[in-house]
């Protein structure tokens, strides 16, 4: 059946908008349904078809025209499928998640105006709460494409930008703290900053090569309470100036060769 015949079966013009196609289908379909007893050929746009033939022709017309409607924007609609969900990525910072905020999403969606679809720029305020994490999806019902069949949803996936200090593991925050060689050898204090900008002093014991410090309640918020901040120390090896290299090499070798067992026995 040609496109012209499809429009004729529905009783609409070839430039009919989507709304008119659907309205015509909904008006004719109950009357020619195989279970209907109200079929009167003369009351239909095409009068030479039997009830079964009209029912089949009506279904074929809608299937074809819904895939290729008279839409100047070139959009395709499918009557047997729900409106397509729109998916976007929303970039947030770790501070956004920690404090909670609202981010504005700018996007385009199809709107129905006088029976025709138009692509329009929209803005959407997306609430970010403290329990959300990188990769999570947020669904905003009915904020997507608008059609006579209903509005689609918008799904937004959170993408957290890399943080210069912290990495995230669940509700825990992990960071590295550079420790000078002198403190690593002889002990001393270093300072670290939490996600909410508090300063904590940590005492690093002497001769600590690898050590972790855990601070409960300094991680990300969660329903059961804030997570943990884990601080991993990282020893910084200084660059030795040329004029000190001989002395530094001699001292280090003396330390490495020192007989601690003998020294303890002599005490």
From TrEMBL:
PROSITE patterns: DNAJ_2 (PS50076). Signal peptide: none annotated. Keywords: Chaperone. Pfam families: DnaJ, DnaJ_C. GO terms for biological process: protein folding. The keyword Acyltransferase does not apply. InterPro entries: DnaJ_C, DnaJ_domain, DnaJ_subfamily_B, HSP40/DnaJ_pept-bd, J_dom_sf. Residues 5-70 form the J domain. GO terms for cellular component: cytosol. One of its GO terms (molecular function) is protein-folding chaperone binding. This is J domain-containing protein.
